[in-house]
Amino acid sequence: MKQRYGKVAVLMGGFSSEREVSLMSGAGVLAALQSQGVDAHKFDPAEKPLSALKDEGFDRAFLILHGPYGEDGTVQGALEVLGIPYTGCGVMASAIGMDKLRTKLVWKAMGLPVPDFVLLDENSDWAAVVAQLGLPIFVKPAHEGSSMGVIKVKSQDALLSAFEEARKYDKVVLAERYIGGGEYTAAVLDGEVLPAVKIEPATEFYDYDAKYFRDDTVYRCPCGLPAEVEAEVAEYVKKAFWAIGGASWARVDFLMDEDGKPYLLEVNTAPGMTSHSLFPMAARQIGMSYEDLVMRILDTTLPVEA
């Protein structure tokens, strides 16, 4: 096993606001790899430069960094320059997937369903935004993950303060129509869409605490959607993954409205792998353990056999 993969770096931590989550994900991945006999080691880009990967003789990388400077194509580009194979999406797909605005524009251009949205700035006409999107509205930074900086706005008067809060995370801020029929996610592993998971948070919405720390968030897998609807969504997810140039693994979040129509929300090109994470949950539904999943992902770094 060690000879097949060589020395593996588990890239975790990093510089983003999701550092804590990345360290939790990375710890799980590292333990799983080591339990399978892989010569795997923690590597935190916040503690030493990526060039040390070459200096320390690493052969490949399991990339479990979240957020900017990890999930946005920057580290992927550096690894390609270093000639080190890595898990997950490539430079282009990672960069697009981290940018909620560009992702939505690509999906809209392909005719895929996305919630209506508006770009916000200091001069936005808040009444016009409400007239177009209705209430409530989600205000969110375009380049953050894990619901960092996301605010559910219930009145026009609260829009400005929500915009100012989201701007602390990113200079590009979106307002997005509320879709109220349920929140779901679908994992994609090497081109295969796994069973969808329904998310039922006890909080106002599926925020940072609900994702990683609360124990009262309910996850349902099977998700409860009719088989034909889940099959339809799976086709949308495949197209969404293909549209950004996806590879290896990713997770596509989607919403259902009250009439049962799906809307694609965003793509996570380095999904969480903590005890609360949804990708391992979907894998378990098809009989794949956490350890098996981690090895399947690592396998995507190996050369394709003829």
From TrEMBL:
Pfam families: Dala_Dala_lig_C, Dala_Dala_lig_N. The keyword Nucleotide-binding applies. Residues 104-299 form the ATP-grasp domain. It catalyses: 2 D-alanine + ATP = D-alanyl-D-alanine + ADP + phosphate + H(+). Keywords: ATP-binding, Cell shape, Cell wall biogenesis/degradation, Cytoplasm, Ligase, Magnesium, Manganese, Metal-binding, Nucleotide-binding, Peptidoglycan synthesis. This is D-alanine--D-alanine ligase. Belongs to the D-alanine--D-alanine ligase family. The gene is ddl. It is found in: Cytoplasm.
